[in-house]
From TrEMBL:
InterPro entries: MFS_dom (IPR020846), MFS_trans_sf (IPR036259), TM_effector (IPR010290)
Protein name: Putative MFS family arabinose efflux permease
Organism: Frondihabitans australicus
Compartment(s): Cell membrane
Transmembrane segments: 21-47, 53-74, 229-246, 266-284, 291-311, 317-339, 351-373, 379-401
PROSITE patterns per the UniProt record, alphabetical: MFS
Length: 425
């Protein structure tokens, strides 16, 4: 029993045995906690000033809109350059953005428009940073550990979702919004030091793509020609647009649907993140990921999200939000792992960039739309829409995958490939 537990524990955290990845993991844990601190504080600032779901939706559009327009081009750049050097630049500029937020938050009477402008600048930096940062993971570990490294990275993001919102709720209610942004700015120093301390000689780099015309189109065509990527990314388009808008739907559910406080919103988000952490650790133990994993996770996500729309009170909402966190992040982590494993090294940045556009870049469309729906029809309706959309995606994807791949993705199927790790369920 002890031996089996030790084996499972070792398998779950195997990629942390690589020093470069361990440094990256620690730096990103601190920095991402700061990011979530800022995300929650900025949302609460807008909601405190306006009380409007539409206003929160437009904030999210400012934060993630640039991804829709620039991320794929940033992915093609990430495929051509030294990713660590690019991250030095983007992380330093993101630190400066948080400093600006802190300065203006400390100035009484600062117009809300100023925060929208800074959020837009931050979105531009995120569009440049995200493809490089996420595709950099595969250069830090051996090929056999890529899936584990990706899922542990997702678990780290969700651990930061627990820490960041909890600190945000405490700081906003005691010291104000400015200190939340200031602490986020300080957190970037940790990730920059981690990048500096990495040993470049131990990177698992692949030949970089050569600059040429049509690289963005080539990346999109590559995804379309790869059935697993085509189906999983089509699913992500719908789920990213209508289901994955927690920054908009959660604060509105707590304030308008359940008549709760800012602290209860941060606790709801922490409950969601605890569930998400459990979900990623479960996926991290798997040595293989398949389209079947993604489709079933999407179905479970739809069921949990639909249940959240009907919770009677905040304590029940905490429990259901934890379930939503577990299944939603299992779905998203499996999608990311599939993208990392199926993408050729020279295409990794572009594939991750397209995934980012579908996951986050659709938020500027879905966020304001769902915020408006909440204002018109009630705070629970956008969550119900997201749940139904995920369930519909599950049904259509299962049928489409069966037809396109000439196999039933809900059956036990194993694929052995010489070029990539086995992708089975």
């Amino acid at each position: 029993m002890k031996r089996r537990f030790a084996s499972g524990f070792s398998r779950t955290f195997v990629s942390l045995g690589t020093r470069n990845y361990r440094l990256f993991f620690i730096g990103q844990l601190v920095s991402n906690s700061g990011n979530w601190l800022t995300n929650v504080a900025l949302t609460l600032l807008v909601l405190d000033r306006t009380g409007s779901g539409t206003a929160v939706g437009w904030l999210v559009a400012c934060q993630y809109g640039p991804i829709l327009f620039f991320s794929i081009y940033a992915g093609s750049i990430a495929d051509r350059v030294d990713k660590r050097k690019l991250l030095y630049v983007t992380q330093s500029l993101e630190m400066a953005e948080s400093v600006l937020l802190a300065v203006f938050a400390f100035i009484p009477g600062t117009s809300l428009a100023v925060f929208y402008v800074i959020a837009t600048l931050g979105g531009c930096l995120l569009a440049a940073d995200n493809p490089a940062r996420r595709s950099f993971v595969r250069e830090l570990v051996p090929r056999s550990q890529v899936s584990n490294a990706v899922t542990l990275y997702s678990s780290m993001v969700n651990l930061s979702r627990i820490v960041g919102p909890a600190i945000a709720g405490l700081l906003v209610s005691t010291l104000g919004f400015g200190w939340a942004f200031a602490i986020d700015a300080a957190s970037y120093s940790v990730v920059i030091v981690a990048l500096i301390r990495m040993n470049g000689a131990e990177f698992f780099t692949s030949p970089r793509a050569v600059k040429a015309k049509g690289q963005v189109i080539a990346g999109v065509k590559y995804i379309w020609r790869t059935p697993e990527l085509a189906v999983s990314f089509a699913m992500l388009l719908v789920i990213g647009l209508l289901s994955y808008n927690f920054n908009v739907t959660y604060p509105l559910l707590v304030e308008k649907g359940l008549h709760g406080s800012a602290l209860q919103y941060t606790l709801l988000y922490s409950s969601f993140s605890i569930g998400a952490l459990v979900g990623t650790l479960f996926v991290a133990r798997r040595t293989t990921i398949t389209l079947r994993t993604i489709i079933l996770s999407a179905g479970a996500f739809g069921i949990a999200l639909t249940a959240l729309a009907f919770v009677p009170n905040i304590p029940v909402a905490y429990l259901v939000a934890a379930a939503v966190g577990a299944v939603s992040i299992s779905y998203m982590t499996a999608t990311t792992a599939m993208a990392q494993l199926r993408a050729e090294p020279s295409m990794a940045g572009r594939v991750i960039a397209v995934q980012t556009v579908l996951q986050i870049g659709t938020t500027p469309i879905g966020g304001p739309l769902l915020g408006w729906v909440a204002d018109v029809a009630g705070a629970r309706v956008p969550i119900l829409i997201g749940g139904v959309a995920a369930l519909a995606t599950f049904a259509v994807a299962a049928a489409t995958a069966r037809r396109r791949m000439n196999a039933d993705p809900l059956e036990e199927v194993a694929r052995d490939t010489a070029a990539t790790p086995t992708v089975s369920r």
